[in-house]
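Schema walk-through. Below, the input block comes first and the output block second. Nothing else is stored per chain. Lengths vary across the set, and this one has 331 residues.
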Amino acid sequence: MALAAVLLVAAACSSTEGAGSETAVGDVCGYLAGSSAGLDSRGDIAYGSDASGGLHLWIMRADHSHHAPLVLGAGAQIFPDWSPDGTSLTYTGAVKPNLGAAPSDICRISLEDGEVTNLTNTEGTNELTPTWSPDGRHIAYTSGTTDSSTIFIMDADGTDARPILDTAGDYAWPSWSPDGRQIVFSGSAADGGPSRIWVVDVAGGEPRALTTQESYGAEEPSWSPNGQLIAYVSDQNGNPDSDHPPDWNTDIYVMNADGSDPRQVTSLPGNEHWPPVWSPDSSRLLYTADGLDQRPALYVVPLNGPFVLPANGVNITDTACNEATAAWRAP
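--- output ---
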């Protein structure tokens, strides 16, 4: 699945409050809805939802209660990531409200004063999936077009943006190691083939493959906070060449940080993806599941019981809305 082609195909919720509309690049970041007051100061989950009529960011408590709008505006806001100190949120702001193959920027919003900054503000480029470095000084993200993309790093204020890969290919979905020295990502080298999981030293060097190039793909990696595991998405139980998305049948897997001992975690019909997100204590995974009806919802699965893995997980949103992509704020 091409990252730039992310699209919610199920019917949206009926509400039009704060509904998104197509907008110009530069106006995609939206505004703080003011809903964070009264929530727990830490431990909250930010996520994308069309409950306000467009695809925007919402927030809920760590116990999955008190759902409220967080960032509204024109276009779409999705793919959130908390700053390490929990006071700011980065996310993707897109021109089109359904986040189709259209230009998008990396945005940052302060939950303390509501200040919004478009960190990239480019035209004709898809910039997606921002992720903070553990020390809060840098942000890694995906940048490219509908044809190809690669991994960039910039300072937290949006300056000094630069690619970290010298290798040609199509790469996306960066995630930092807890010590900030490495970034894991997914994609295909210039010679093509299914997507693999790669890791590269931030200081430089050639990327190293953590998964083999089999007939199936592996993508959307996420490094656990304790540094021991990497969660990722694989279509090895599905048909990635199908024109019918549920047939892709992507599932969540985990492997050791060195690429050893991969094992399946989820097993719902349809796709689990976008991407898996770790709880702060590395005991649970939060992910988007869109089943045979292609309506995305947020699920959580514990890695250490009570379920026998692979498992279906627990739907923590369970609404008629489309809810996808999430970020878990550390306590």
